[in-house]
Amino acid sequence: MASDREAERSVNRPPRDLPFRGERIAVVGLGKAGLPAARRLREWGAEVTAWDDKEPARAEAAALGLTVADPAVSFGFDALLLSPGIPHILPRVHPAAAAARAAGTPVLADVEFLYRAVRAAGSQARFAGITGTNGKSTVTALLAHLLSGAGIPVQAGGNLGPAALDMPILGDDGVYVLEMSSYMLERIDSLRFNSAAMLNLSADHLDRHGDMAGYLAAKARIFARQLAEDTAVLGMDDPETAGLRGGLAAHVVPISGHTPVPGGYWAQGSLLRDEQGLIADLSTCRTLPGQHNAQNAAAACAMAVSLGLRRNRLADGLHSYPGLPHRQELVGEIRGVRFINDSKATNADSAARALASYPRVIWIAGGVGKEGGIEPLAPYFGHVAEAFLIGQDAAAFGATLSAHGVPHQFSGTLAEALSGAAEAAFSGAAEVVLLSPAAASWDQFTGFDQRGDAFRALVRHMPGGQG
Sign of dihedral through CA atoms 366, 368, 370, 372? Predict the structure, then answer.
């Protein structure tokens, strides 16, 4: 009879009956998720052909012994695993996706293959999925933290953290907590979430989905295969998300960042509640500031309880949550001024959540603006003592601020902006310097994470910083 340790090892190996034996799978896009996916699918029995439009990525795949060929040239595959960032319909179809669709072959995301492998292994591990325009990374990380703190085996990833096919096969008691982008959700086929959340919806990625109706349809796929015994957590604070309530098969648990919702989880001020009473005072949870994080905490708690966590464990988990980089991350406190890295705020809706969290800030913003710019932030301009603008669309942002009488300066680079913002804050204009750009970062950085890392390093090398 196998020992417990041997049984545990067997669960974490690829299934003995290889789930993709003999399947011909093309993997296109060999980045952070694609290359691990190609390697794992090969380990699990698939005949893998790998491709990337960039030669260095193809060379790396070839060095690992993968077959490298363009599947669009002669498409003869059972499935196409297409990197989420590569479009298969809008704004322009990738040639490999066009070939797959012409052949009637499914275009899938890596999480779909993880689900199939887990079930092929005989594991009944549960799947929890989180989507929404904003907050999904925080809820993913917070839910994983709550579950792991209670001793439940957890793997967290997807759009956040490790790629899906870098994760081990968990046993029946395990939970996969997956951040799901709209790009991933439109490429799942059989994946069923035992607990799923849609937090909110605001205009984003419309070039990819065509319009808000297309965006909503992609997001709503997180609930597509749920059954009555599953849980659907729905944000009630925007009409698009709340409007899904009547059409779902799963048990619906409503959440709100500010309004009581019968049968759900909500915040009144800083107090997180359910129908049994107080869960936690979020004002004492340093990594969960603001009304938006109240809704995030409500979502994570609702999902954790649906997955078996006892209610009396929630408060300790909320208080011990360490937070995520680039999401209202406190990166330094110098001379009484707090420096907040919210580089993940790449659109106005995200920046609004940060601006609403502090009564007075020196604001660093700018980069590659989204449709509508920062005009939607006008209700929060009263929180801004002064703005320092960077990047490609600084002039457009400045024009909006001028129209609303908000003091601002054009700084060009992040280093120049931080220098000016710190000087203003040290002079008493505000106690918070907030990097919440309301814009993408591609004009000056490789991504929001590099932008946030640069801000953190600059703060830590200031006199009085930690560097």
Answer: positive
Query: What value, to the nearest 5°, has the Cα angle with vertex 260 and ends 255 and 264?
Result: 40
Nearest to 272 by CA among 247, 255, 286, 252: 255
pTM of the full predicted structure?
A: 0.85
What pLDDT, in 10s, does the model give residues 237-270? 999 999 999 999 999 999 999 999 999 999 999 9
- Alpha-carbon distance of 393 to 377, in angstroms, equals 16
Q: Give the whole-angstrom CA distance, residue 117 versus residue 44.
A: 8
Q: Are residues 155 and 226 in the same domain?
A: yes
Residue 91 inside a domain? The answer is: yes
Tell me: do 162 and 242 sit in the same domain: yes
Q: pLDDT, tens digit, for every residue of 426-448?
A: 999 999 999 999 999 999 999 99
CA distances from 75 to 28, 100, 364 (A): 12, 7, 48
* 23-26 own/partner pairs: CB under 8 Å, 24+ apart: 23/47, 23/78, 23/79, 24/49, 24/76, 24/77, 24/78, 24/79, 25/49, 25/77, 25/78, 25/79, 25/80, 25/81, 26/50, 26/51, 26/71, 26/75, 26/77, 26/79, 26/80, 26/81, 26/96, 26/100
- Expressed as residue numbers, the domain containing 199 is 111-320
Q: Are 118 and 262 members of one domain?
A: yes
Q: Which residues pair with 177 in a beta bridge?
A: 128, 156
Q: Give the end of a domain, one of 108, 142, 157.
A: 108
Greatest CA separation for the chain: 76
In a domain, 1, yes or no: no
Q: Do residues 300 and 348 both lie within one domain? A: no
